[in-house]
Amino acid sequence: MEQQFDVMGRFAGGAQYIAGELKQGGSGTTHAVVDPATGDEVYSYELAGTADVDAAVSAAAAAFPGWSGATPGERSDAMHRFAAVLTDQAEDFAYAESLQCGKPIKLSREFDVPGSIDNVAFFAGAARHLEGKAAGEYTGDHTSYTRREPIGVVGSIAPWNYPLQMAAWKVLPAIAAGNTIVLKPAELTPLTSLMFAQAATAAGIPDGVVNIVTGAGREAGEHLVGHPSVAMTSFTGSTEVGKRVAEIATRSVKRLHLELGGKAPFLVFDDADLEAAVHGAVAGSLINTGQDCTAATRAYVQRPLFDAFVAGVADLMATVRLGDPFDPATDLGPLISHTQRDRVAGFVDRARGYGARIHTGGEAPGGELAKGAYYRPTLITGAAQDSEIVQREIFGPVLVVLPFDSDDEGIALANDTPFGLAASAWSRDVYRTGRATREIQAGCVWINDHIPILSEMPHGGYKASGFGKDMSTYSFDEYTQVKHVMYDNTAVARKDWHRTVFGDR
Ligand code: NAD
Prior knowledge:
The protein is of the alpha/beta class. The chain has two domains: 15-260 and 465-484, Aldehyde Dehydrogenase, Chain A, domain 1, CATH 3.40.605.10; 264-447, Aldehyde Dehydrogenase, Chain A, domain 2 (3-Layer(aba) Sandwich), CATH 3.40.309. It contains 16 helices and 22 strands. Strands 14-15-16-13-12-18-19 form a seven-stranded mixed beta sheet, with helices on both faces. The protein binds nicotinamide-adenine-dinucleotide. The site of nicotinamide-adenine-dinucleotide has 30 residues, from α8 and α9.
């Protein structure tokens, strides 16, 4: 694929977007965006320091009165224009996302970019449907109603696995509800977040409503979370960093939304459509090179189907085409970085060491791909339920398969990690699948599929996968606060209830 645009030129102004302008960071530390397919540097920039975070928060605070005071219709119109700008630039977004992440271009074109545009369109509509719930005379002497109000300046922090979608999930419900935002993307992947904010400006969303600071987690991230003028923290990333973010946010009693790690189970009952389960497992575990918080990571297969499932997955995984992310025929790109590749390889090597069997993969490819952060699709059996490869988040193209006997056992194993983000169950029996949907502790349970996600439905975790919802109108519960307004209807100076404080009836 031809280079779509000159990345260095486009972001020559810097990787901070504050009050509608690109700016250089002031931390004194330079950071490189590297193409993980080649190891080549594609952009270098100065990370945000704390003064950049302060400037972005000030810009967001200055924009808040105007934006929160706009009518829902005005905000909705601006967001419809935003969707149109993104649609015009869809190819540029797909290019930049694949370049910085190593995603196969077909994934960027068919999933990340259209999914994000659909999110904008959804929230453009949803902006007009924010409502208070009840209005009525509950005491007989008063009229009560509720107002849903924006919270103020939102500070959001995002990971590197789906930079554009994460920017969309964080920014859209926040601004649709009338908040303004400062988003910190991951240092490795700032490009599409910056483009997203620029597109908001091009659509006429006022300067300061959407700001980007690209800095290190420890410096810019922690400063943003602790900032006294930031009213809410919304964080997506690992559970470990989420705990630290929660600690800092709690000190100033901030509203907090945490979307954390996952370790999704994939539960195959013995009456499942085997071919569908095999296809679902390969797609569900390898999407985005397994760097997906909802990816299928632990397949539990009822014993009668176990051997056939393992053989089917191994055969299908062997057909997956690793290659240049810009080749439309490439199925699987590299991991985000060589560091992440080595981390994944470490998990697999240690599993070998404790006796697990590697059916396919388990190594980085050689030849042409050796310079990129590639790792072959990997299928593992023979790992114990309490081993780290079953319990911890790997974030790579690795699927572990374990057998189970009774339905009770399968569901118990599915629930047996600290995480609870997503899960799937595979069966033709409506009672079995119904039980799985009720008893699996996860924010999403798919039946006979794994991965699809949509703007209308909420996404968020149970247990150590966090709390709060992205997408859907449920996300407004995170980004708004509810006020009770109560009017006296009697016009009486001495009210009946006053007797509980002074005098008698
Ligand atoms: P990470 O937790 O290392 O980093 C996430 C973000 O936090 C980055 O922007 C990073 O700079 C910042 N950060 C790091 N330390 C910080 C600190 N001390 N204070 C404030 N910010 C800090 O995660 P990652 O490696 O970028 O992404 C992968 C993780 O994200 C996985 O655990 C994955 O499951 C999770 N994730 C979850 C969801 C979800 O919806 N639940 C979606 C995508 C990714």
